[in-house]
Amino acid sequence: MNDTDLGRGMNSLSAAIRSAQVVVPCADLQATMDSFLERLGFRVEVIFPADAPATAVLSGHGLTLRLETSNDNTPPPALLLLVDFSALPVNTPRELRLPNGMKITLVEARPRIEVPEAQQEFVISRAGAPHDWGAGRAGMQYRDLIPTRLGGRFVASHISIPEGGLVPDYVHYHRIRFQMIFCKAGWVRVAYQDQGPAFVMSAGDCVLQPPEIRHRVLEASPGLEVIEIGCPALHETYADHDLSLPNDRFKPDRLFGDQRFARHVAKDATWSPWKIAGFEAQHTEIAAATNGLAGVSMLRSARECSGTIRHDGEFLFFFILHGEFGICGANVGSHQLRENESCAIPAGSEFELTAKPQLEMLAVALPGNILAA
């Protein structure tokens, strides 16, 4: 059988499947079944034979189990139950054992977002070689811009879709504290929950993805590149199979985790003087949309210029879009950065920034007032 035949066979199998069951071996079928029915709220779907039951199919909480009488000491699978602990007595055990030896672990269904303590350090990322890129979700290529993740607090990724075209994405959301997307090159068509029809992000555009907003990537130009920054570094991506995007629902003031969606369109934005003479800034609305949590700005220079600033915040990150940029300070050393290179700067740093003519770079900071003029 060749790969084409195998693929056709798998497609046929997928279309023919009507349900799925997890086999749970047990020596005492009735005792195990009673535990699932009486303690865990499952229900019987099938049981046979009637005169001496040896198999029972139970369903509950989105799961179907096939209990089968077995005396061959086959270990049963482990089971996780996602629960709301606030609805349970405080002394409820976190682990249960059923008569067949099956281990059931109770975990919080919606745990708090854990944001690790920041590990303040200078991190520089040089322009990526081909082996620096790895395969990510939905056919996207990822380059890690902060390999240390600053102790797990932040992740910064350079993402590309080299071939472009329709993107095999699905409606999903992230459990995060902060997340932004900046379009560096090409264009991408996206859809967001309660933000109206799908729209195109072009080079220079940026969006804030507030916590748990549903969204979907639909289509991209060949050579699309985006910069994505999130906190915490490790966060879950959940699929939402019930919501269809794009749709026409438009509620621009809706809050998602006390933040609102923000879209920055570069061609409609203005430039203004920044805190270092010779620099100009194009500020986004992300500081306002996050209630000051974070700020995102584009910086540029028309001439060679330099100046000293101090950073005492939680996070400061620069990504060079075009041109050449220098940074020098006691906590960071002396470095020159060029297109596609970036740096994260530790708190408590006073440093000098030097810009060559025609410099353009992305700046992201927590809190947002770090980037204010």
Task: Describe this protein's structure.
- The chain is mostly beta strands and 373 residues long.
- It folds into 3 domains: 19-108, 2,3-Dihydroxybiphenyl 1,2-Dioxygenase, domain 1; 123-260, Jelly Rolls, CATH 2.60.120; 272-371, Jelly Rolls (Sandwich), CATH 2.60.120.10.
- The chain has helices spanning 3-16, 29-39, 286-289; strands at residues 22-26, 43-48, 55-60, 63-69, 79-83, 95-97, 103-108, 123-125, 133-135, 141-144, 155-161, 165-166, 172-174, 178-185, 187-192, 199-202, 206-208, 215-220, 224-231, 237-239, 255-256, 259-260, 262-264, 272-273, 279-283, 295-301, 305-311, 315-322, 324-329, 333-338, 342-344, 349-355, 359-366.
- Strands 8-31-28-33-26-25-24 form a 7-stranded antiparallel sheet.
- The radius of gyration is 26 Å and the shape is elongated.
- It starts with a helix and ends in a 7-residue tail after the last strand.
Keywords:
373 residues; mainly beta; 2,3-Dihydroxybiphenyl 1,2-Dioxygenase, domain 1; Jelly Rolls; 3 domains; seven-stranded antiparallel beta sheet
Radius of gyration: 26 Å
The total of helices stands at: 3
CATH arch. level architecture of the largest domain: Sandwich
Structural class: mainly beta
Shape: elongated
Q: What is the terminal separation in angstroms?
A: 66 Å
CATH class of the largest domain reads Mainly Beta
CATH topological fold name of the largest domain: Jelly Rolls
Count of structural domains: 3
- Share of helix, binned: under 10%
At the fourth CATH level, what is the homologous superfamily of the largest domain?
Jelly Rolls
